[in-house]
């Protein structure tokens, strides 16, 4: 539930990026493209606060427990997201509007930075032996549900409201709806027990790994999930604005494409996590990253071709999301197994946050600005393929976990 709230908001911001740009970053007579770039810059800023949140809340989570940190971060995210829905626009308060929005985005970034490490630690530390892939995949699955929830809310509003209503006040509703959902998530988290691994660690403290070893594990983890981060945000969040600003799709058409992509993403996550418990994390994640490298350009070309039927385009975006799910399913367990309990919350949170800060948070900004300057509409595919190629190398250069070997019991 907490993951759903965290990622619902990030999805909503991405889906409404063009409308947010018009309301907060585009004064009268300003360029729509420049406004969108500034909106994505604010989006990226939140991601650069994630490593700060991962370090701050991760340290707390490794010292005082997973449970209190998860309660704190959901309260912070709920408050910041609700306030975004009540912010005055540029027309009302001038240049103060984008600063207020960006400040709240920074708070959301801090929260999300602590969320991932805590959520994955809880999922994997409660998992029975040999089931970390399945349990950890639920973190990614609830991310998919959050993105789908955001897309569904945006699609519903686009169906029942006129475009002027949507731009004027309708965009606020998905942000305001976070309040009751967030309070529900907060109540659930207050009922959560502390993980057995953390309790055992607190009773018999172990020595943390040397700083160099920890830094190496963080760098390795960031490289392994780079493609997941970049391809995920390219296909699942940035796609609507790309279709509108570059391919002249309507807001409704862009949202339908995004819903299909997120359905494909959700469909493969849990099966991929389950399979990784049998064959190892590396083969499943390698398959997903390699498929993005091979298929990114052809998939995007299908969307660009006006002669391609809507059914084929739908299959293409569904497939794009499904391939990302192959990386997202085993990813949380893979990161958790890189770190012992003493530093797990901090280590896996930083690995994920650093990769996302650079390759997810900047995806919309990089893609929009590069397409504007070069006129090359294939940039999103090149971006996803290049980052996944790096992940292929990071995954291929390290030994995979053989069936029957149980490093996760050591890590606990």
Helix content: over 70%
Largest sheet: none
- Please tell me the overall pLDDT: 87
Please identify the structural class as seen in this structure: mainly alpha
Low-confidence runs of at least 5 consecutive residues: 399-412
Overall number of strands: 0
Shape: globular
Counting DSSP H or I runs of 4 or more residues, the number of helices is: 21
Beta content comes to: under 5%
Quick take:
The chain has 412 residues and is an all-alpha fold. 82% of the residues lie in helices and 0% in strands. Helix 1 (2-15) crosses helix 8, helix 3 crosses helix 7 (96-125) and helix 7 packs antiparallel against helix 8 (132-160).
Description:
By secondary structure, the chain is mostly helical. Helix content is 82%, strand content 0%. The protein is built from 21 helices and no strands. α1 (2-15) crosses α8 (132-160), α13 (211-247) runs parallel beside α18 (344-359) and α13 (211-247) runs antiparallel to α20 (379-396). The chain starts with a helix and ends with a helix. Residues 399-412 have low confidence and may be disordered.
List the helices and strands and how they pair.
Blueprint: H1 2-15, H2 17-25, H3 32-48, H4 50-64, H5 66-84, H6 90-93, H7 96-125, H8 132-160, H9 163-170, H10 172-176, H11 178-190, H12 196-203, H13 211-247, H14 251-279, H15 281-304, H16 310-328, H17 331-336, H18 344-359, H19 363-374, H20 379-396, H21 407-411
Helix pairs in contact: 1-5, 1-8, 1-13, 2-3, 3-7, 3-18, 3-19, 4-5, 4-7, 4-18, 5-7, 5-11, 7-8, 7-18, 8-14, 13-14, 13-16, 13-18, 13-19, 13-20, 14-15, 14-16, 15-16, 15-20
């Amino acid at each position: 539930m907490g993951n759903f709230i965290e990622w619902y908001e990030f999805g909503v911001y991405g889906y409404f990026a063009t409308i947010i740009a018009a309301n907060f970053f585009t004064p009268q007579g300003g360029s729509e493209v420049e406004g969108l770039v500034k909106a994505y810059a604010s989006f990226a800023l939140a991601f650069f606060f994630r490593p700060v949140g991962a370090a701050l809340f991760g340290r707390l989570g490794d010292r005082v427990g997973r449970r209190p940190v998860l309660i704190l971060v959901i309260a912070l995210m709920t408050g910041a997201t609700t306030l975004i829905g009540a912010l005055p626009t540029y027309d009302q308060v001038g240049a103060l509007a984008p600063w207020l929005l960006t400040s709240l985005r920074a708070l959301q970034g801090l929260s999300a930075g602590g969320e991932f490490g805590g959520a994955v630690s809880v999922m994997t530390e409660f998992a029975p032996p040999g089931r970390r892939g399945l349990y950890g995949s639920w973190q990614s699955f609830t991310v998919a549900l959050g993105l789908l929830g955001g897309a569904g809310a945006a699609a519903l509003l686009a169906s029942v409201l006129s475009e002027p209503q949507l731009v004027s006040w309708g965009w606020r509703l998905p942000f305001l709806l976070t309040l009751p959902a967030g309070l529900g998530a907060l109540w659930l988290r207050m009922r959560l027990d502390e993980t057995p691994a953390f309790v055992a660690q607190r009773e018999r403290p172990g020595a943390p790994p040397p700083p160099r070893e920890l830094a190496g594990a963080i760098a390795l983890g960031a490289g392994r999930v780079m493609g997941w981060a970049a391809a995920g945000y390219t296909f699942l969040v940035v796609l609507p604005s790309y279709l509108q600003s570059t391919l002249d799709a309507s807001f409704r058409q862009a949202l339908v494409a995004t819903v299909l992509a997120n359905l494909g993403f959700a469909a493969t996550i849990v099966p991929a996590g389950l399979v990784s418990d049998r064959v190892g994390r590396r083969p499943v994640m390698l398959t997903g990253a390699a498929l993005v490298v091979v298929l990114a350009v052809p998939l995007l070309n299908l969307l660009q071709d006006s002669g391609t039927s809507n059914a084929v385009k739908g299959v293409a975006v569904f497939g794009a999301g499904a391939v990302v799910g192959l990386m997202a399913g085993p990813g949380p367990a893979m990161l958790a197994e890189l770190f012992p309990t003493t530093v797990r919350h901090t280590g896996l949170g930083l690995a994920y946050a650093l990769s996302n800060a650079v390759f997810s948070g900047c995806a919309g900004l990089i893609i929009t600005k590069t397409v504007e300057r070069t006129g090359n509409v294939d940039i999103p595919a090149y971006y996803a393929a290049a980052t996944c190629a790096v992940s292929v190398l990071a995954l291929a250069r390290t030994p995979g976990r053989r069936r029957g070997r149980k490093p996760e019991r050591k890590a606990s």
